[in-house]
Design brief:
alpha/beta; Rossmann fold; Alpha-Beta Plaits; 6-stranded parallel beta sheet; 4-stranded antiparallel beta sheet; 14 helices
């Protein structure tokens, strides 16, 4: 039984004991005792303050026996309530409740954040990257032990619940979210989360994990923008380690550097950007921000312009693939947004 349940049970029993005392004294005292006298006797008996009795019970054996029983049961119940409340405060449940309410308020204020469904082996690495790169996100995970493990990464907004439950997704602010990744252990659950999320937010970017290759098309039809197979990615990693180990070492060093946040990122040139119709020389992005432009993807085109020439002109909607850390991205945002 949880501490909150213990307190509720204890208070219920305490109310029962008080009512029993009032009724008992009224019955045993007869017409001589008023309701107020019965309440008074019950209170001074249970609290053991020792005030003078309003009615002498020295010649009323039943009242004496009743008082003894009331003290025994009443004190036991009172001690149970006090110990439960003390444990509730000392063991941190009160702090947890206050912290939970504060976190719920933070989640309600989030906008353009990410939602991560599941904190298993795959989900943990997703969360680790989001923390390192300073992204706003909400974790949905039913296992408290996994949540504790994730909290070792830093401050994490989380909901202890089932991601397949529509109400939990709404609590995570899915209507205001920028993207969702589902890393649940079965394709069925990932499919259900994808379908529900797409219904709740048609503009959401959804990335789903697949266990079986056969599930990819179902996930795409359900509304996923991208489907990732850990087995497929793992196979590519193995062969890359075999034939291009230096490149893999470079990417690993960049992604796993504990002290840095250098990443390959993407930014989109907004409608009010000062970079529109300027070439890369005029934009001076590396000089102003330190970010290195690796490629450009023009709006509505599938191909990339790799290692773009200095004369390449920038247009609204262009996506820049850059090598940058969080500080560089902060400097770049005003330039691309305007």
């Amino acid at each position: 039984m949880g501490l909150v349940a213990r307190i509720k049970v204890g208070l219920f029993l305490l109310v029962g004991v008080v009512l029993t005392g009032i009724i008992g004294y009224k019955v045993l005292g007869g017409k001589e005792w008023s309701i107020l006298d019965s309440i008074y006797m019950t209170v001074i008996t249970l609290s053991t303050v020792g005030y003078e009795e309003v009615v002498d019970i020295s010649h009323n054996p039943p009242a004496k026996v009743f008082t003894i029983l009331l003290i025994l049961f009443g004190m036991g119940t009172l001690m149970f309530v006090i110990s439960s409340i003390t444990a509730f405060i000392v063991e941190g449940e009160l702090t947890n409740i206050i912290g939970r309410r504060r976190m719920d308020k933070e989640i309600m204020e989030l906008k353009d954040h990410f939602i991560v469904c599941g904190a298993g082996e795959t989900g943990f690495h997703v969360l680790e990257e989001l923390v390192k790169t300073g992204r706003k996100f909400v974790l949905i995970e039913p296992d408290p032990e996994r949540i504790k493990k994730v909290q070792s990464l830093g401050k994490v907004c989380f909901i202890e619940g089932d991601a397949t439950d529509e109400s939990v997704l709404l609590q995570a602010g899915i209507s205001r979210a920028r993207g969702l990744v589902t890393t649940l252990p079965t394709d069925r659950d990932n499919l259900f989360v994808t379908m529900t999320a797409r219904e709740l937010n048609p503009n959401l970017r959804i990335v789903a994990k697949e266990i079986s290759i056969k599930s990819a098309q179902k996930l795409f039809k359900a509304g996923a923008n991208a489907v990732v197979s850990p087995n497929f990615i793992g196979g590519l990693r193995l062969v890359s380690e075999l034939i291009r180990p230096t490149v893999v070492s470079f990417l690993d060093r960049m992604l796993r550097d504990e002290g840095g946040s250098m990443r390959i990122e993407e930014v989109t040139i907004g409608a009010n950007s000062r970079l529109i119709n300027k070439d890369l020389v005029q934009a001076e992005i590396p000089k102003k921000t330190g970010a290195l432009i690796m490629a450009i993807k023009e709006q509505h085109k599938k191909d990339f312009i790799y290692n773009p020439k200095p004369s390449t002109s920038l247009k609204k909607g262009d996506i820049l693939v850059v090598l940058a850390d969080t500080d560089m991205l902060e400097k770049l945002q005003p330039l691309i947004e305007g």
